[in-house]
Amino acid sequence: MKSIGPTRSSHSLSVTRSGAALIVLAGAQFVVTLSTSIVNVALPAVRDGVGLSDSGMSWVVNAYGLAFGALLLSGGRAGDLLGRRRVLLAGLALFAAASITAGLASTAWLLIGARTAQGIGAAAVAPAALALVMQLFPPGPGRGRALGVWGAVSGAGGAAGVLAGGLLTESLGWPWIFHVSGFGAACVCAAATLLPATAPPAPAARRLDLAGTLAVTLGLVALVHGLTAARRSGWTDPLVLTSLTAATLLLLLFVVVERHHPASLIPPQLLTTGTVAPANLVMTLLGAVWVGLFFFLPLYQQQVLGAGPLVAGLSQLPLATANMLGSSLAPRLAGRLGAHVTLAAALLTQASGLLWLSRVSAQGSFLADLLGPTLVIGLGLGVAFVQLTSAAVTGVDPADAGLAGGLVNTTRQIGGAIGLAVLGTLAASTTAGAAPHLSRTEALTEGYRAAFLVSAGLIAAGAVLTPLLARRAARSATPAQEPAAPHSTTPHSPATTRSTR
Fold this sequence. Notes:
Low-confidence stretches: 1-13, 479-501
Number of helices: 17
Distance between the termini: 8 Å
Oligomer: single chain
Largest sheet: 2 strands, antiparallel
Structural class: mainly alpha
Helix content: over 70%
Shape: globular
Strand content: under 5%
Strand order of the largest sheet: 1-2
Radius of gyration: 22 Å
Number of strands: 2
């Protein structure tokens, strides 16, 4: 643990190191979000290159999502118990090796296995990196700016994935979508070795809730598997019903275990701390719309407007730019309007953009149908993501920071899986109903319009929930939670000590 003294020189050194560390940690988050979307545009080329079936092609996406979403909580707790820097480095190393392996794969089983390993590595990286950001930047303007960078990188990574996927697939071939991710992760891993480290927790504190970890991991795997399978086979398919039933039972078992375990994976007090619970609820809705947006936009451009992978990828640049702008503005807006007013306004802005997007046409164009609404959506998405991330981790005990980071990433990822399953089923059924009466492109457009319309409703529902966050924040703002006095010299005071595991 390194103490930050009161002298000006030590303060300047701390600021410099914190800034450099933020660049490294933001790079880790960028690599993770990039790999979530970089495969989407390249899927047809991957299918032809490895000889995948249609179901196998979907598993190139699902294998990563399953491992990532199911293990985020475990990855966050591992960082808390074993040291966040250590877990971050291990996750980046695994991610890099798995990415290179995926690019070299010549068989379906090797490719899908490598994508699973990528997801496991990402589940270690994302919560550890966010927890380190929260440690390096205590509550205040500095943390707001850091989370603004974090939000900009997260949104840009999703859009850049679509862009890079199209560019690399058309120029160098599909293996390079994985090689680039691997080289990027390796570079970030090398830089992350420069992050300061502290001693790991005392042996008595290294207690892992194995029963809870197993129950929640298997439960989330079953849930994500059932939801993704429902998109292909329908909600009444026996495998889908079995998966969802198993998920329900396992998650109920997890709740029972957590109530009785002395070192539970999710301490009960975590969900009652500040705005953690309502923030994660709204983040679930945001994740559902976020993943669906980056899934349906490239499909509309390629299947309806006839754009190629490169053009579809380049078309994400305005959305990414608006997202980065919204993320950078979020701290300033929150300072002037208040955090919860800013969040509500951002969600309503995003909902209005999605409502506008639901008017796309089969004879449309990027300039007429997509540019305006994606700019509006990007602004709202950037601001909302920063505000929700902050609300989900603010006030949490430092010992649980990694878990809180894992939880907010889990709700976004699981929300994305649920949203994509529901929106994908809705779009497919709408298209099927319109097919006998309309041309193929018109029927597809009807399905996409329905998905965007329901997405607007989900985000509007999130805006309705923001007063709940305001009430929870006001209730938790008690004198006992006020920060220590500026002149406190207590060794563990947040004002004088920063630690980076």
